[in-house]
Amino acid sequence: MEKEEAEITGFNEEIINIQAAIAGFESGHKLNIAITAEPLAGRTMLINEVEKINYQKVTRLSFSSTVKNKGEISLPEQLRRIVLIDDCQFLYTRRIGGFHILEDFLELMTSSNNIFITAWNLYSWKYLEKVVNIGKYFPVQIKLPKFSTSDIKECILSRYKPNEIKFIENEYEKEKIIEITRHPVVIKPLKNPIDIPFFKINYDTLKLRLFKKEKNISVEDVVFEKIARISNGNPGVAKIIWQNSLEYPVIKPGKIKEFSFNIELDYNESFILGVILSMGTIKKKELSEIVGYDYGIDETLFRLLEQGLISIEEDHCSIKPEALQSIVEFLKRSRLVW
Amino acid sequence: MADSNTINDTISNTTNNTINSTIDKTVQKITATPAIDMADILSAILILIIANLLIRAITFILTSFSERVGIYRINIKMVLPLLKFSIYGIALYYILGNIFNLTSPQSLAFSGLLGAAIGFGLKDLFADMIGGIVITLEKPYQVGDKIYMGDYYGEVTDIGLRATKLITPDANLVSAPNYLIFSQAVASSNSGNPEMMVVIELFIDHDSDAFLAMKILKESAVTSKYVYVSKESPFTVLLKDYPFYRRLQAKAYVNDLRYQFEFESDVTRRALNEFSKNGIKAPNVNILEAEGYGKIAKRWEP
C-alpha cells in the first residue's frame, strides 16, 4: 500500500535556485522569492522541502482562505530569518477594495529585514502581475516546470515498495492509432444537434509503431507515458489519474481513461470558473462577494458541478483535477485567465 | 491623263477589294464562332449559383468554427472576404473563358458593353466592387472589427462584393456601400484584435476625495469580468479639473469587443455604488443643467 510520505521529485533546479537566493541573502542581498505554479503542480511539496532543508531558520505562514484582516498577516515576534508563505493568492480578492491586504503585505515585506519565500497560484500571479505589477517586489521568480514522464514515474512509484505494482497489458487492450469520436454540432434549422464523427489520432501509439519501439518499450513505460500526457506533466493530476486507474496491485494501460470535457458555459459561469481556478479553492461566500448582486452564485455553481468541472466540500469550491487542463484551455480561449 | 485615271481606278478597286475581303473574313470569323445560346446562359447561371452556395457553405463553416475558438475568431473571419472575391473571380473567369468561349473581338465587344454599362448605370456597383477588393487587400478593417463608417458604428459582420454589413449597438443591420472607403474616413476601434479600448467617464464634485475616487474607478476597471490587461493593452485612470466638477476617465481594454457596452456598464455601476458608500458625490445637478453642460447632464440621466 501507499507510504505516508513521499520523497520530493523533479524540483532539483528550483531548490538550487532557492538555496542560492538564501545564500545571497545571508551575504547581504535581499532577494524575495515568488514560486508560481498551476493548481496541483507541486507548489506545497516544494515549500515543504525548502522548509525541511532550512530547518530552524524558517518561520512558516499559511493561509487557507481569503485574508480579510491586517492582523492575519502580522508577523510573529520570534521571527526567523526566512519567512515561508504558501497560498499567497489569498492575499487579494477580485473586487473593489480587494487589494488593500496585498498592499499592506507588500509594504510589510519590503520594510522587513527577512527574506520572503512566497508561493502563488500561477493564474492569480499572472493577473496580479498585469494589474499591480507584483513582479517588481520579487527579484527571484520561479515557475514550476511540468514533470517529465520519468519524474511522474518516480513521484508515483516512490509511494510503493519495489515490484509492489504489477503492470499488465492484454493484447486486445492495445491502443488504436485512430479513434473515432462524435461531437454534437448545432445547425440552426434543426432542433437537435447532429453528431459528426471526428477522427482522433493517437500520436503516442503512432510514434511507438512508426519507430517500432512498441515491442521494446515496457508496459510500465507505456503506463507512465500515457499518464504524463493526460496530466500534461502536472504531478497532482497524474496522481489522481493513477488512483482512478489502479486496481491494486494491478494497473493496465487500457484502463487509464482520457478526460474530455465539452465545456458549455455562459460568460458569468466562465468568469466564476476562472476565479475558482485562480484561487485553487475558495469559499462560496467569498464567491458571492465577488459576484455581488449580478447573478445567483448557487445557479452558477450548480452548472459547474453538473459539468463535472468543480467539486464543493464544506462550502469550499475547487477545480476537479481531471478537468484542469480542459478548464485552462477553455478559459484561455475566452481570455478569462491570461 | 487617261492612263493616270485608269491607274487610279485600278488602285482604288484593288484597295476596296482588299478592305471588303478583310471585312468578310472577319465577319466570317465572328460568325464561325458558335453564338451564345440559352444552354450557355443557363450554365453560367448554374456556375454563379454554385459559387454562391460554396461561399455560403464556407462562410457557415468558418463562422461556426471561429465562434468556438474564442480570441482567434477575428483571425479566422478575416479570410472570408478574400475567399469570396477569389471564388467569384474564378467563376467569372470560367464563365467567360470556358462557357462563352469569347474570342478577342468578342471580349473587346464585351468590354465595350461593360464600359457602357458602367458609364450609364452601374458605375456605383463597379465602384463598390473595386472598394471591396481594396478592403480585402488593404484591410482597413476586417470582419469582426468595430468600426465607424460614415454615420454608422458597429461590428463588421460581412464584407461582400457590394457592401459591408455592420450590426449597430441597437442590433440594426446596416449595409454600407464599399465605395465609402474612397470618400470617407473609416475608424477601426480594434484593428483586427479581439480586445478594444473602452473609455469610461465619471464626474464628481469638488468636495469629494478625488484620490479615493480614482482608486475606486481603477479597481472597478481591473476587477471587472470583462477587462483585459497586457503590456500592449494597459489601463489608466485620469483626472481633469473643470470649473464646476472633476472628470474621472478610465481607459481600459475589454477582452472581447462584443462586451464593450457591458464592460462600460459594469465598471460604471460598481464604481458609482462604491462612490455612494464612500461619500463621493456627483456634481450639483443645477450646474450640470446650466447652459453648455447639457452634454454632461445627459450622462447622469437614468
Automatic annotation (TrEMBL), chain B:
Principal cellular location given in the protein's record: membrane
Pfam family, one: MS_channel_2nd
Keywords: Cell membrane, Membrane, Transmembrane, Transmembrane helix
Transmembrane segments: 41-62, 74-96, 108-126
Domain of life, per lineage: Archaea
Membrane topology: Multi-pass membrane protein
Localization annotation: Cell membrane
Gene3D superfamilies for this protein: 1.10.287.1260, 2.30.30.60
GO cellular component, one term: plasma membrane
One GO molecular-function entry: mechanosensitive monoatomic ion channel activity
Membership in a protein family: Belongs to the MscS (TC 1.A.23) family.
Name used for this protein in its record: Mechanosensitive ion channel
Organism: Candidatus Methanoperedens nitratireducens
Lineage: Archaea, Methanobacteriati, Methanobacteriota, Stenosarchaea group, Methanomicrobia
